[in-house]
Amino acid sequence: MNDFQPTVLIVDDTPANIQLLNGMLRGLYKVKAATSGEKALKIAHTEPRPDIILLDIMMPEMDGYEVCRQLKSSTYTAAIPVIFITAKAGVEDEQHGFSLGAVDYVTKPFNPDIVKTRVRTHLELYAQQQTLYAENKQLKQRIANKFCDYIEAEIVSILAAGESDGTEFKSTLRWNLHTDKADKKIENACLKTVAAFLNSDSGVLLVGVDDNGNILGLEQDGFASEDKLLLHWNSLLKSHIGIEFMQLIRSQINNFAGQRILLVQCLRSSKPVFFRRDNDEIFYVRTGNGTNQLKPSEVLAYLDQRES
After folding, report:
1. Domain count, the chain
2. For the segment 10-22, what is each residue's pLDDT rounded down to a tens digit?
3. What transmembrane ranges does the database entry give (predicted)?
């Protein structure tokens, strides 16, 4: 028997509202409460963290919008779903809340059935996201020191989890979809990602996939064959990443969902890797789900920290 009960944090400066919501949810979930934004943030950063937060907007000192902004700006609490509980039901209010990262709204006066349904739905979605995150983390750990032969189910998991510090999607290898012609900037973006993965903790680049994880295929790049695409890509890697790092990169074309995608695995390099093009040498790393350039003064500090 599974005795696990998700934890709901109710944040409202009116005790009567907390009591009302607690009465609706008690028995189904573990319930915690906070009467201010400051207390809510403290609870959210304390283990065990809440699995969902019901957050009032109109509170003194720190309103719900600011609490939500701070929750979503912290890697420790960013994934926790936030449902606003409010009497403000205007379209602009809802849009503002969603832009801050809230997943839903429940309006006052509370309807018990609606409250329970919204909480249950978003807890289920949160649990699914956490499962995908854990699976993706396991996959990343597997490739940290060796290449993998991905099965289709694992690729599905990577696509579902989305872009992260160890995963990036690119729609094309060389074709600019806006100008409808080949563009070195598109190639550079792929090469920078590879350099960043090598300088960080490994990663997987999927080409032929849009930002949302939808398969586009490789046809738009216009190569006559898969061999010519790989020949072109490997030539770029040798020229702009370096022949000495080719042993840490494995590129292969996978057939998936009726489309071809380029899957590039990058292992962690023990030496600094610079992206070289047009007489420049630039050092890139992964930060969150993005690739960032470090200033020369930052490179040594980063390398020291990486090896510590």
Report:
1. 2
2. 999 999 999 999 9
3. none
**Two structure tokens written together for 284:** 């890139």
Return the closest-CA partner of residue 24 out of 93, 66, 83, 94. Answer: 83
> Is the domain of 110 the same as that of 162?
no
Contacts of 303 (CB under 8 A, 6+ apart): 272
Question: Same domain for 127 and 252?
Answer: no
Q: Mind listing the pLDDT tens digit for each residue in 72-114?
A: 888 788 889 999 998 866 788 888 889 999 999 998 889 999 9
Q: Which amino acid is at 293?
A: Q
pLDDT digits (tens, 9 = 90+) for 264-293: 999 999 899 999 988 889 999 998 889 999
Distance CA 175, CA 185 (A): 9
Residue among 72, 29, 24, 26 nearest 48 (CA): 29
How many whole angstroms separate alpha carbon 78 and alpha carbon 42? 14
| Strands, sheet with 259-266, edge to edge from the N-terminal-most edge strand | 167-170, 203-207, 259-266, 249-256
Angstrom distances, CA of residue 283 to CA of 85, 127, 193, 243: 46, 37, 11, 17
Same domain, 121 and 164: no
CA distance linking residue 161 with residue 159, whole number of Å? 6
Q: CB-based burial of residue 263 (10 Å sphere; 0-12 exposed, 13-18 middle, 19+ buried)? A: buried
Q: Is the pTM of this model over 0.85?
A: no
Q: Are residues 167 and 297 in the same domain?
A: yes
Structural domain boundaries enclosing 50: 7-131
For 11, phi and psi rounded to 5 degrees?
-120, 115
